[in-house]
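Quick log. Single chain, no ligands specified.
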Amino acid sequence: MPTAPSSKLAFHGTLASVQPRITLHRSFDQRHHSYLGYVLAIEGEIDGVQRTFTVAIGKAAQAKHGLQVGDTIKGATVPVRNPRTERAEFYKASGLQVLAKCEQADLTPPPWHGQPPELQVYRERGHRRLAAKTYDSKCSTCKWGCSMPVDITLDQWNPTKAKYRVETFCYGPLSCPSYAPGPTRKVLGRNGMSWEEEDSVDEEATSHRGPDD
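-> predicted structure:
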């Protein structure tokens, strides 16, 4: 397993997105989530190199700073230990400082910018699957979009057997004109079995919301 270096890397830049850091755990037709914090996409410099990069932060850091698209920040971080289980390149951010807050009002959505809600709000809203191409082209900066690392337990009697992948989801309003679900998703199980997650799963997860909620 990859190991992270002991020394932290300095970074600074402007936030291109602030999205929830959520991991999806699948076992055939069962699923649950781990709500870990937030992922920042930053256009700036890390370890002396100019580029766009991603840094994971905890919910306490987000609550303290109220980060949103357009803010300029700096801090220090390290590469993630296991890239298969993270969507961010870096984590364990420290010394986080806000150098400038975005003063421009949120543009007409979609995408929705502004400060993302607390993680409990995402849990309560529930999500729908989101086509990867739509996420990449229209939703990668939206606070309601989420690119999740997924671990799949192939055999619940032998949890060491696992597969990893990435799935994209939408927590936004059901009436969003940018939304496209993409194909249904299949989950492998024991002895080559496969389960397909039908539309009804998403419908049930978001049935408590109105079209504009």
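Residues 9-205 form one domain.
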